[in-house]
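Batch manifest line 500
LIGAND: alpha-L-arabinofuranose
JOB: complex structure
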Amino acid sequence: MKKASLPLSKSFSIGKIDKRIYGSFIEHLGRAVYGGIYEPGHPAADADGFRTDVIGEIKKLGVPVVRYPGGNFVSGYRWEDGVGPVENRPKRLELAWGVLEPNTFGTDEFMKWCKKADVECMMAVNLGLRGAEEARSLVEYCNHPGGTYYSDLRRKNGTPDPHNIKLWCLGNEMDGDWQIGHKTAYEYGRAAAEAAKVMRWVDPSIELVLCGSSNSHTRTFGDWEVQTLDLAFDKVDYVSLHQYYDNRLDDTPSFLAKNMDMDRFINTIISVCDYVQGKKHSKHQINLSFDEWNVWFHSNGDYVERWSQAPHQLEDIYTFEDALLVGLMMISLLRRADRVKIACLAQLVNVIAPIMTENGGGVFEQTIFYPFMHMSRYGRGTALCSPITCGKHDTKEFTDVPDLDGIAVLSEDETELTVFAVNRDFEEDYQLDVDLLDLDGFVPCEHIEMAGFDLKQTNDFAASPVHPTEAPLPTADGGRATARLRPLSWNVIRFKKQTL
Ligand code: AHR
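JOB STATUS: finished
ARTIFACT:
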């Protein structure tokens, strides 16, 4: 058995974890809305048509914030189409995904759903085909109490109290030429700055996210952030990051090292934000909103009938190895919890999602559901930075990949400590010695693991073979606990402070 050690101390604090790091995303895309969260007539639907079985799954995940309504969709969206009497709402050609949008679900339905699902809304405005005018009208519709055209329209539409949406995205992936209304960095920086200005004049309490690059491999990566931040710096609070990984080449060792690319991405954008801050001699710190991240490739190339309504689209079925990478990506997010304040697993239901539904039927939890649920449940409090001392290996794409990757979290009330760790080794068990330096009185109380599955094993409506199980409790000896991490495994090692 290989050996590794993890020293832990309160003084290794990276920072307090913002719970919004466990956010997710619902786009008007495929069956995320229609047939996902909303399916009037379904046996589990409530009086508003919201699937209560899906809400139950979302509550299990403990998602605190959901980004809406896109994604690429938002860049062609007219929010006015989705409010008011349903019978008056227009059907539109939805150009981003080549489908029909019935608009029977819109802003007010989503906000009602948020209340029932106990989540906060992260609303995106259209800076593709539209701009400051429509963005400030939407803020007025959602957040102004009343006595003006748009706030009274909301009241007339059945919502007397403002929705009070605090978090807003200034468009989506505006650097990408696939985006409706794609812009250069200059065009977008100016558009975002002007939209931000008037949106904040309507409601000064809102927080704003500037669009960063669509991923870290674009031609304009880095320059895009520098230029757009330069133009909108004082007016925004966060810059967005998006990243999806794939195992198209079926090279699992490299696939399981891809969160090292994510680490580099995050660190680069932090440097860019700090560079622009320094250049401007400003005290204003820009933080990161990693508002799209996941594994995405299984559904690439799937046929979708043009102008169909709510088709099966981007319905990736996730494998066990995908779950391992999702866990690793979350470890990377927590590693920079000092600057990554928001993150959205893209997406939440049916579309590259942890939760799958059948129209008129049941739900199932994908493999990636579990590491997300564990982190969201036990990963709140303070992230503790401590590199694990372990062996390293090279892959086709990466060198010096640590066999183990992990992070520890001390709960807010300091009574619980959890170590999240992945063993990337294909063959060997690891003995992990956790040294609790100044964390007196903590004893292991549970070791949850996902291990021993075929890497390509998936779950479906009939069965969920890939799921967490209880591993033997780590042994404890004074301030040291020793756990066994099986090859290719996801591990959640929980400690509780003993009270005398
Ligand atoms: O999440 C799916 C799509 O991925 C989003 O619409 C877009 O923002 C990204 O390219």
